[in-house]
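Page 42, continued from yesterday. The earlier attempt failed because a stray header line got pasted into the input along with the sequence. Redoing it now with the clean sequence only.
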Amino acid sequence: MNEEVNKSLNFIEEIIEEDIRNGKHGGRIHTRFPPEPNGYLHIGHAKSICLNFGLAKKYKGKTNLRFDDTNPVTEETEYVESIKYDIKWLGFDWDDREYFASDYFDQLYQFAVKLIKKGKAYVDDSSADDIALMKKNPMEPGVDSPFRNRTIEQNLDLFSRMKNGEFKEGEKVLRAKIDMSSPNMHLRDPILYRILFKPHHRTGDKWCIYPMYDFAHGQCDSIEGITHSICTLEFENHKPLYNWFIDELGIFPSMQIEFARLNLNYTVMSKRKLLQLVKENYVSGWDDPRMPTISGFRRRGYTPDSIRHFASLVGVAKRDNVIDLALLEFSIREDLNKKARRVMAVMEPLKLIITNYPDQIEYLAIENNPEDPNGGSRQVPFGSVLYIEQDDFMEIPSKKFFRLTRNGMVRLKGAYIIECNEVIKNEEGSILEIHCRYLPESKSGEDKTNLKVKSTIHWVEASQAIRGELRLYDRLFSVPDPDNQDSDFKEYINKHSLEIKNAYLEPSLKDSKPGEYYQFIRNAYFTPDLDSAPEQLIFNRTVTLKDAWVKVKEKENN
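This time it went through. Structure tokens are written below.
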């Protein structure tokens, strides 16, 4: 899928092209994607990945992958590996430019020492609560810490002893000395270093003090020579602090540019809340197909092309807004319509016996995808005993019912026209099976009858049908904005976000594997689950053929 469609430049592209015209940094374009390895990436990160790597590709620049691993309490190697896999799955590569903030711990420490020597940083013995009280609020000036005027010598000594592990956690912090009366709360003497006696996933026990995110993030950009530091709007108020560090340290002036983060309705994007869903077993893991993580979408059957296309459709904005999840579902339907192989599966089976069909199995060539000229065909067994969907038959039809009825005709997909002439019921009056006759001269592609039937239905031959489990996934939350409700967001989890059904499947699906895409004809798009195996086939519903959510909500409201 070509994302380089003819369209106007977004505001970030305008900035970059202006910089190139002015010869800024010699016309060099260097971006970065800087995830914290404290969880799996979600769909919002996918937009940032597409933006950073996409801009570098468009302007023949480079993109670094840098893990901002400054908090050993929440970071794990598992998250690092999952992030790398997700980026490559989306179709991007950072070549040999893989970095970690922890690569620069020694340099960041020296930056802190430089600020102390300039009288721009001090060691504070105040507790976290006391520091918060000193900062007050944006409407009134803060109060200076009683330790703010320590001498440079005292601060150098105390900071060195912090590094050497002589103090307890929470006993001391290093703060920048900026402006306690600034209306920007980030400039009210922010904390630069705190004490944490926690092993780091890369540096082990070498450090017991760790830089705060705000101190490490911008400086890492400068160390790597990042020309355009692209981040979400929540960091707009952090920019003056990052520029202050650049000026005081005299380091490379990375330019921060903020854009609107991706917000989806019926979804939560907070990694803290996503972790809560995992830890409290509301979902089966980070890659649960109901999760908005990239791994969850992959397991559900979303394609890299569909997610990249979705990011392109959303575009780059300066103001936060909420995107309708239906747009993402539209993107995957468009992509799978071209790629997915059409197959037949029956979830609510009704036995259909063709009384005049010979006692044999015939193999019919049925096209794999009418949208794909190179899709080819497959051989599907056909016989006298079939399964069809129960709702494809109505003994006494309603006015707009055009499928199979008593004495009515339909075409069986890729096969023959049949006519129902008998309905077999049990003592309670429930239908057990229906008996039909077929028209031998009506074979698909060779039809000599000239009969015009109003409907085509799918089917599965009974003797060779295989059984499979279908996991029908839907939206995880039942309200558009679960984050902004009066009560706990978990109370709005959709009770019908996963329903499991068994189905009869055509035998071509026996060797299906994860990463393959199917349209179960007249039903939905499906993909084999990671746990699927020939002896236990499991398929995840990726998305319905049409937006069924509106109809579901209308039915609930009536």
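Notes: The chain has three domains: 21-259, 271-341+468-557, 345-458.
Reminder to self: strip header lines before submitting.
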